[in-house]
Design brief:
Layout lengths: L20 H14 L3 H21 L5 H26 L1 H11 L2 H40 L4 H15 L3 H9 L11 H27 L2 H9 L4 H30 L1 H5 L11 H4 L7 H8 L2
Helix pairs in contact: 1-2, 1-3, 2-3, 5-6, 5-8, 5-10, 5-13, 6-8, 7-8, 8-10, 9-10
Length: about 300
């Protein structure tokens, strides 16, 4: 209910006589805890707020909102003081952190390199994902084929590829295939490695989606005179794709993480080789090291 004073103006919550005095005191001390009396005011605001809430529960007094506001201001005051003390005690470490992660000279040098790396990553991921979708769907169809040899070959491919780490596949495709006369560029080797690896995972996703469609759908379409491929194209696959879109999207996000590693595959790159030293700046910081690695 709106209350008016003698002059006909609205009375604020703080001016109402039925409001608990402890709630008013809590709000006042909360304000002081953020301004004039940092620690003591914040602690008293919390204590007064607890007393006011207990008093309001036991009597007909009002002011729960004021008590809550005072308690919140007290907590904020303590947090601010805690942060200030932490900053004061860790000045040297914060200064070192700022120099390592927010050095403007390093950022000016690194940002263009990181931008180039991002474009390469995006291009490699998009091209690879297009190839992965095609190869994964083909392998999934072979995996559920009625021809045993196709099912066997698809199962072997899926089980073997999923058991080999991606970084090992990258090295085998880029370094190992050169002995067979297949000299891929770094970008091509990255696309091939990502396609071969993730197509095995995507094949299992597509297979699960296809098998989740009730077999009566296929039987009904075949009874209408459709061929197997027509039934799969017009009836089964549209439903399967809708069901696996979430899993495919999650896998695509995972693909975005690996292209940088794939793009870095090149002769002479080994942890113990001298090329490792060429990517270490004079003052090694996380930002500069990342920028050097993306070159």
């Amino acid at each position: 209910m709106i209350q008016l004073n003698e002059e006909g103006q609205n009375i604020s919550e703080f001016e109402k006589p039925e409001v608990s005095g402890w709630a008013k005191a809590s709000l006042i001390m909360g304000i002081l805890g953020l301004t004039a009396v940092p620690v003591v005011g914040a602690i008293l605001a919390i204590i007064f707020a607890r007393i006011a809430k207990r008093q309001i529960l036991q009597t007909d007094l009002e002011g729960d909102g004021l008590a809550t506001a005072g308690q919140a201001l007290g907590v904020i005051g303590l947090v601010v003081v805690g942060l200030a003390v932490t900053v004061f005690l860790m000045q040297d470490r914060l200064r070192e952190f700022s120099r390592d992660f927010f050095d403007w000279d390093t950022m000016k040098y690194s940002i263009p390199l990181l931008g180039q790396g991002f474009l390469v990553t995006l291009k490699l991921a998009l091209v690879s994902e297009a190839c992965i979708l095609v190869l994964g769907l083909i392998v999934a169809l072979l995996r559920i084929s009625r021809i045993k040899i196709f099912r066997f070959l698809a199962a072997v491919y899926i089980d073997v590829i999923r058991g080999i780490p991606l970084i090992l596949q990258i090295f085998v495709i880029y370094f190992g295939l050169t002995y067979l006369g297949l000299n891929f560029t770094r970008f091509t080797a990255g696309v091939v490695a990502l396609t071969v690896c993730y197509a095995a995972y995507e094949a299992e996703i597509f297979r699960a989606g296809i098998e989740s469609v009730h077999k009566g759908q296929m039987e009904a379409s075949r009874s209408l005179g459709m061929t197997y491929m027509q039934s799969m194209r017009h009836i089964v696959l549209p439903q399967a794709v809708r069901r696996v879109i979430t899993s495919v999207t999650r896998l695509t996000i995972g693909i975005l993480i690996w292209p940088t590693c794939a793009a870095r595959s090149r002769p002479g790159l080994a942890p113990s080789s001298s090329s490792t030293r060429t990517i270490r700046p004079a003052r090694c910081t996380p930002t500069s090291c990342c920028a050097k690695w993306c070159r």
